Amino acid sequence: MTTQARTTLETFDNPQPNRDFTIRIDIPEFTCLCPKTGQPDFATLHIEYVPDQTCVELKSLKLYVWSYRDEGAFHEAVTNRILEDLVAATHPRFMRLTARFNVRGGLYTTVIAEYRQPGWQAPPVVQLP
Asked: Is the pTM of this model over 0.85?
């Protein structure tokens, strides 16, 4: 069983491919390096997605996230790159990645990136009393 960081994402078959349902994953320990100073940047990643035929396997996601620990990246670039990699691996109906970076120099940064499969429409929201 490996615990080494890696850049590949594994998937498994969606157990309910005929139903729209949402998977939410919180990753509170994301780390990358500031490309200007080399100092660590810390963030919480929030992934929300509606799978199509496959779902992301969580251990591979954890090891994938670890691969950024020694990589320099601007917040905007790393957020979009992670979203692109997740979309390429899972081909979801919808995916949103919200990256909330911790304070740096008195500033908080939140980057939100989304993907929507062409033609997919979100089901209407049900309001219960």
From this structure: yes
Contact present, 72 and 33 (Cβ < 8 Å): yes
Question: At 33, which amino acid appears?
Answer: L
Answer for the pair 50, 92: CB distance below 8 angstroms, yes or no. Answer: yes
The pair of three-digit structure tokens given for residue 20, joined into one six-digit string: 């729209």
Distance CA 5, CA 73 (A): 17
What one-character DSSP code corresponds to residue 87?
Answer: H
Instruction: Walk along the chain (129 residues) in steps of 10 and give the mean pLDDT of each run.
Output: 80 97 97 93 97 97 95 96 98 98 92 97 91
As annotated, the active-site residues are 34, 41
Collapsed DSSP state (helix, strand, coil) of residue 33 = strand
